[in-house]
Amino acid sequence: MPRLSLYKPEKGKDFEYIDARIFEMFTIGGTDVNIHKYIGPKNTPIDASTNEQPNYDVIAETNIQDLLFLENRDRKYDEDIYRIRGIYNVQDIDFNLSQFGLFLNNDTIFMTVHISSTVKTIGRKIIAGDVIELPHLKDQYALNDLSYALKKFYVVEDVSRASEGYSPTWYPHLYRLKLKQIVDGQEYKDILDLPIDEENPGDGTLRDLMSSYTKELEINQAVVAQAESDAKLSGYETRHFFTLQTDENGEVELVTADLTSLDASTVQELADRAMRAPERSGYTGYLLGDGYPPNGEVFGYGLNFPVESVDGDYFLRTDMLPNRLFRYDGTRWIKIEDKVRMTMTNTDDRNTQRFSFINNTNVNEIDGEIVEERQSLSKALRAKSDNL
Length: 388
Fold this sequence. Notes:
Layout: H1 13-29, E1 31-41, E2 75-88, E3 95-96, E4 103-104, E5 108-114, H2 115-122, E6 131-133, E7 153-161, E8 174-181, H3 189-192, H4 206-210, H5 213-230, H6 264-275, E9 299-302, E10 314-317, E11 324-328, E12 333-338, H7 353-358, E13 363-366, E14 369-372, H8 373-387
Parallel strand pairs: 9-10
Antiparallel strand pairs: 1-2, 1-6, 2-5, 3-4, 5-8, 6-7, 7-8, 10-11, 11-12, 13-14
């Protein structure tokens, strides 16, 4: 008589019996799980040596789209939806205070599924990248979306054998899935582009119903608009301050008079000094230059200085980067300040070195090769060294 042993090298009738009883428990007490089967990346990488795409037989889930970052951004999902049964513990919204800060633990679900029935249904084991929809979590009473129920989608992040799924025969029967809620990302475009109502495809897509992209964009634009209203330019505003005239030593020229010494000549001197344009800005600091003369003086602007000028004229040279403000002292144009205060948003009219030089998109042709202007110098030096 052979020795009694629950473990056998092959899966026999005992394994099949226990597996069928476990599957029956999922049929009785489990919930429906809709699986959007991940097929593989849509775009395969290009071989650098041959400049051609590798000869993949078909789109396979084992292919890798980006070999540098080891990720598949353009994912393709099966048009058919597979239904299996799963069991998991429903969690309350609970805060985790065990670490520094406040964290929510309800965005991760650990679900167990039956191995053999799952493989039989979808044709393979569940892998990371598959998307799971839980029909019983549909929100029938969502605000502003009462005509449709909000669905819950989770992506499989990890798959392992559940410790409670081992039978006395030492063979596993259950998979343990780690699920995370999906976001409106490039990876799930195939799923979010599905219609809300399959009978009426023109009513919109799941993205229109579930995605928070539009609302987040509106919030971001409102924040930017408020920031532009509060701080239109970088640096500090000094235009509303009055600049007093200074002498050759940089000291403020003050003329005082009491009632006994006040005469016509003193009044005329005060008037002349008040009419004189300041020779420089009265304030120094970081990012103060705005290209405007002190005290709101009249000024001109252009690419060249005017031919006819008088003492005290201001002129803004717009051909310089940054724009530079000059003052005419009767014989020459003296620099007053540079227009360094710029808008804080990335607009096309930002006259800064970062926008026009670092982000330069203009191109030139060097040795028959079209290159960007910011690369022209290095290209020219490299070509000169090669010729030497």
